[in-house]
Write a structure and sequence with these properties.
Elements (H helix, E strand, L loop, with lengths): L29 H9 L3 H4 L3 H5 L9 H15 L8 H18 L5 H29 L9 H57 L1 H18 L23 H12 L1
Helix pairs in contact: 1-5, 4-5, 6-7
Length: about 260
């Protein structure tokens, strides 16, 4: 099953579609239109943007005509126009807005949704022909099958699946974009740190050069000999006394005996 945009599980089969009768075409009467868009089963049924706007998916709709239909439908169900039940009217108005956004989300959206509707209708008709042939082969009357309602169910299921796939693809793209942005930020931080290091290195260049020159002068002056550290005479008293050897201790003891 697929979780639709409107929060309804779209796992119904054609046999379970008795509660989804095909309603009359869109009306210009506010009460009738609000009832059509908010009647039982409306969350699932209203996944089809063509049905919500009351237009056929077979004729092809250009952007100008689509905007014209949207303005007409939204005026009919607008809460300020339909005051009998503002809450229901607001719900119907949101469905009309969402249907218009579905068909104008990107270039070719109308064609994509029309293709879904056509494929769903073709599948239901194919299944119905197979059902009738099977019944004929078994020499029995075909079981009751509500083709129009089955088309509604198949169409909305496919639209819900397509919407779920679109959302997943969008989230994947967002994650990839975030990853690329983080990588670019990391590279920028690395470049900034490298520039700061080069700046400090260049700033200390004179100090390093002077230090190397002093070292080279001392080396030439010593002729390759190691420099012997000098001991200040004032620091001699701080040198620890040297201990007598064992032989000197023995001689001293012999003299004392004599």
């Amino acid at each position: 099953s697929t979780q639709s945009t409107w929060g309804l599980e779209s796992s119904m089969e054609p046999e379970e579609s008795n509660f989804l009768p095909v309603l009359p075409e869109a009306s210009n009467d506010g009460a009738a239109e609000v009832a059509r868009l908010t009647s039982p089963g409306h969350k699932f049924r209203n996944l089809n943007p063509f049905w919500v706007l009351g237009i056929s998916h077979k004729n092809g709709v250009d952007k100008e005509s689509l905007n014209k239909v949207f303005r007409q439908r939204s005026r009919i169900v607008h809460p300020d126009k339909f005051r009998e039940d503002r809450e229901l009217a607001a719900q119907a108005f949101e469905y009309v807005k969402h249907a218009h956004s579905q068909l104008t989300a990107y270039d070719g959206a109308v064609e994509d949704y029309a293709r879904i509707c056509n494929d769903a209708e073709a599948k239901v008709m194919h299944d119905d022909r197979k059902r009738q042939k099977r019944a004929q082969k078994e020499r029995r009357p075909p079981s009751p099958f509500d083709v129009p309602s089955a088309i509604v169910v198949e169409t909305c299921n496919r639209i819900a699946d397509a919407e779920a796939e679109r959302i997943v693809a969008m989230k994947v793209k967002e994650a990839q974009d975030a990853s690329r942005a983080e990588e670019m930020a990391r590279r920028e931080r690395k470049r900034t740190a490298a520039k700061a290091f080069e700046k400090e290195w260049e700033k200390d260049r004179d100090t390093r050069v002077d230090s190397w020159r002093d070292f080279s002068k001392k080396k030439r002056k010593l002729g390759g000999r190691k420099e012997i550290p000098r001991i200040d005479s004032r620091e001699v008293s701080t040198v620890a006394p040297v201990r007598k050897s064992a032989l000197e201790d023995t001689i001293g003891e012999d003299n004392a005996i004599e």
